[in-house]
Amino acid sequence: MRQIYPFVLFIISFVACVPQKEVIYFQDDIEDKYIDTEYNIAKNRQIIQPFDEVYIEVISTDREGTNFLQQQQRGGIYNTTTPEGLSIISYRVDEYGNVNLPVVGKVKLSGKSIEEAADYMEKQLEDYLYQPSVKINFVNKSITLVGYVSRPGRYYYSSDHINIFQALGMAGDIQEFGNRTEVVIVREDENNTTKAVVDLTTEKIFDSPYYYLRSNDIVYIKPLKKRRWGFDSFPYALLMSSITTLILVMEYVKN
């Protein structure tokens, strides 16, 4: 009877733990782990698309041209550190790829990078201002992380690019029972929606077009089978206590 106890303990410990191989990111097969490995990861320029939000600033050497667009907008004090505040002072690209500017009217920006859009707008404004200078930035770029991350939710970022590990860091990383080998990424590109599955435990992730996320991407972390079975909430202490009590009673009766 005493031999059963270690065996039961071993079985419970085996099924309750997540193997280390399932929680380590970008593993490789190189024997010498100290050899530096380089990856050429292309950072594609972000293209303006319908329904994007952009902040536009126009400056001119004309006295009247200073902060041209701001002069045409309604006055007011806004908290530009919040998504709502940024939405008030920014321009939303409509479904046809245009922004509607004061005085100038509709200007098509979709399909262009922010640099190309700024150059294009400068040419459009030459009829109104002397030597106009245009600065454009994306605002309210966001990604959504759901499933087995520590803090699911929608996260805003201001950098030009964000990779999937930076996004996971914002959400507190994947939980212990989250599946790192089958991470689902849902991406919308104009009228098309694509779903991809990536493995974060292999270095092949660096070559994936989904290594860098795009604004409005959704990252879903599925549960491991162990979590679906409920092992992370299983009352091990109660089970072990019951087994111990049973063994002691049987030993007492036997003697």
Automatic annotation (TrEMBL):
Protein name per the record: Polysaccharide biosynthesis/export family protein
Gene3D superfamilies: Outer membrane lipoprotein wza domain like (3.10.560.10), wza like domain (3.30.1950.10)
PROSITE patterns, sorted: PROKAR_LIPOPROTEIN (PS51257)
Metal-binding listed as a keyword: no
UniProt keyword annotations, A-Z: Signal
Domain of life from the UniProt record: Bacteria
Keyword Signal: yes
Record-annotated Polysaccharide export protein N-terminal domain positions: 46-137
One Pfam family from the record: Poly_export
Alphabetical list of InterPro entries matching this protein: Poly_export, Poly_export_N
